Amino acid sequence: MTGKSRLLVIARHGQSEGNQRNVFTGWRDLPLTSVGVDEARAVGRSLAELGVRFDAAFSSALGRAIQTCELILGELGQSGLPIFRSVALNERDYGDLTGLSKNEARERWGDEQVKLWRRSYAETPPDGESLRDTIARVLPFYVHEVLPTVMNNDATLLVAHGNSCRALLMALENFTPETIPFVEFATGETRIYRFQDDARATRIE
């Protein structure tokens, strides 16, 4: 990949113990599994093959994202690069669903209600956040912290979670409240963007 200017790589953390057990993890701080470690390292190797070198790195404040970020940078020989950590990039808070498996949640609230909480844009689980709530904290952080870094010609890595990554896609790829609930962002998945002078992003990988 020639040139690093105005480059943003968004990555979801590798598989966590919560992903492995198929539970609502949210802000619960569970580590990566061995599969998740392998996924994170694979991201780093793929970026190395593309010739990517980072000037800045961001992650959520949760361990699975921080660990993934460290593993990616390690594969690039950039373990010393500081990581800016922020709760603004944390996963969606699932409230009373946290720690429950999908089946346990369905048994308690019913399949249709759980599906609504999981897939809708604005429905909020008890004591938790909707996707809209998550977007409301992710996007200001992106605008005030991440975007200025990228526009300073810094190649930037950002590691977050399924829902906080999807929040960023609304800003970068113009998904709407009607379309974003159907967008998936898998563990170990990355999207790479190059930015124009007017701060518009073009996905290149």
Structure, described:
With 205 residues, this protein is of the alpha/beta class. It has a single domain (7-19, 32-93, 130-203), classed as Phosphoglycerate mutase-like (Rossmann fold), CATH 3.40.50. Helices cover 41% and strands 14% of the residues. It has helices at 17-21, 34-49, 63-75, 102-109, 111-119, 131-151, 162-173, and strands at residues 7-12, 56-60, 83-86, 156-160, 190-195, 201-203. A six-stranded mixed beta sheet has the order 3-2-4-1-5-6, sandwiched between helices. The termini are close together. The mean pLDDT is 95.
Gap from first CA to last CA? 10 Å
Number of strands: 6
**What is the tally of helical segments?**
7
Helix content: 40-55%
Total domain modules = 1
Instruction: Give the topology string: H per helix, E per strand.
Output: EHHEHEHHHEHEE
Output the structural class.
alpha/beta
CATH architecture heading: 3-Layer(aba) Sandwich
The CATH fourth-level homologous superfamily: Phosphoglycerate mutase-like
Using the CA coordinates, give the radius of gyration.
17 Å
